[in-house]
Amino acid sequence: MPAVTVTRTGLSSADLAQALTKQLGSRYKVVEKAGHPGKLKVSTSAASTANVAMSERPNGTHVGVHGGGFIIGRLINELFIARTVAKAISESPDLNGSS
């Protein structure tokens, strides 16, 4: 599971979703998981999904990303969309204090 710690603290799900949408572009759909604070779903199709979970840490916000789906699909998503999402998070100036 790719994981990133960003420098920004006090990050909400909405903040993370907005930063991801900006970084990834319109091809990716980013939605907050209803009833699950700090969790998002990122997808390009029904078969290409990544689940994002964040937690506050002393040095910033830890964001874990893992591929969604079942067995083979999850492995493929772990290699592709999850890595893409983690890279977008790590490179986002909105999340890393460079905005």
Explain this structure.
It is a single chain. With 99 residues, the chain is an alpha+beta fold. It has a single domain, classed as TATA-Binding Protein. It contains three helices and five strands. The chain has helices spanning 13-24, 71-79, 81-91, and strands at 3-6, 29-32, 39-43, 49-57, 60-67. A five-stranded antiparallel β-sheet has the order 1-5-4-3-2. Strand 2 and strand 3 form a beta hairpin. Helix 1 packs across helix 3. The model has no long low-confidence stretch (mean pLDDT 93).
What are the salient characteristics of this protein?
99 residues, alpha+beta, 32% helix, five-stranded antiparallel β-sheet, TATA-Binding Protein
CATH topology, by name, is TATA-Binding Protein
Q: Element order, helices and strands?
A: EHEEEEHH
- Amino-to-carboxy terminus distance: 27 Å
CATH architecture assignment? 2-Layer Sandwich
Radius of gyration, in angstroms, nearest whole number: 12 Å
The unreliable regions are none
Put the structure in a nutshell:
The protein has 99 residues and is α+β, with helices and mostly antiparallel strands. It has one domain (3-91): TATA-Binding Protein (2-Layer Sandwich), CATH 3.30.310.
